[in-house]
Structure formats: structure tokens, C-alpha cells
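#help-structures
NK: newbie question, is this the right format to request a structure? protein is DNA-binding transcriptional regulator, AcrR family
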Amino acid sequence: MKEIIREVAVRHFNAFGYEGVKMNKIAEEVGIRKQSLSYHYPTKSDLLLDTYKQIVNEEISFIEDFFTKKDIGIKELLLLLLKETEYRYYKQPNVAFLQIMSFQAPVEYSDIVISYYREYLHIFKQNLIQISSKSNSFTCTPEEFAVGFITIFDGLIIQLVYEDSRSFKYASQSSFSIFWKGITS
């Protein structure tokens, strides 16, 4: 039941923001009474934080799978990750929720949300360090490679959250080209 509740909640959080979400509307869409929803999630903040934590864990699994199952070059792998990120942002509400909340968390919960997001970024960074350490053709350390790519990645996420797909594609092509030239020349 919690999984169904979280799925509906993500759609509501994405559509209305934290302040606009009404627990009775989520209960109605799930097909339960508000009291039954309160059994699983006594407050909206409980629902938000549990949902966000679950999605962070899903995305950590995605990142770990993504970097271990691909048998392609590093450049192609990173470009594929950027394409996947855009696709998943628009097609999978959980991905949009993760990224939107990382920038627009309610003030009273921002420390908790950021701590979860940092956990995700840490795993992301470790995977980048691991793949970059397999190459000796870079002009930077694996740590610098990872920090540089994550910085670009965060900037590109802003394009998805605040702009649109066209803006993301343009910024992605431009910034990745400069990044790649910088680490390989």
C-alpha cells in the first residue's frame, strides 16, 4: 500500500508542490479514506521524507547499475547518461521529483532532503571516480574528473527543473564538449 501511496504522492508533489498537496486528495486517488492514509503517513512531511528517501535509494541503484552494466567508452557512457537523465526526467515522475526537491525542498525539511541528496551524489561521485581511474588519458585526477562532471550535471539539472528540454540539450552539448576537451587535451 505504501508504494501506491508514494506513487500517487509523487504525482501530486510534482504537480502542486509541497504546500499545494492535500492528503485527502492523495487518499481519494489511492482509493482509501484519509484516516487510512494517516495510518501509513501521519503527516504530509512524513510522506514527503519517506517518498524522497525511497526515490534516492532507487536512483542510487540506477546509478550503480548504469555504471556497471555498460561496456562502452567513458565519453559515450557519460553522453548516454546525459540522454538518459533527460529522458527519465520527463518520462519517470520519480526522477523529476528527486531533482525538483533537491532544489525546491520546503525550508523546514531542506536539511534532511539535502542530506539524502548528498548520499546520492556521493555514490554518483564514487562511480565516476571508479570509471575514470580506468583511463590514463585524462589530464586530471579521478577526483577532479568526478567533481567536474557532477558540477556540470548539477547545472544541467537546473535546465530541466527551470527551463526545458531544448535548453537542456543545448547546454548539455556545449558544456560536455568543453568538459571533454579540458580533460583530454
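mod (FA): yep, format's fine, and the C-alpha cells are attached above. The radius of gyration is 18 Å.
NK: thank you!
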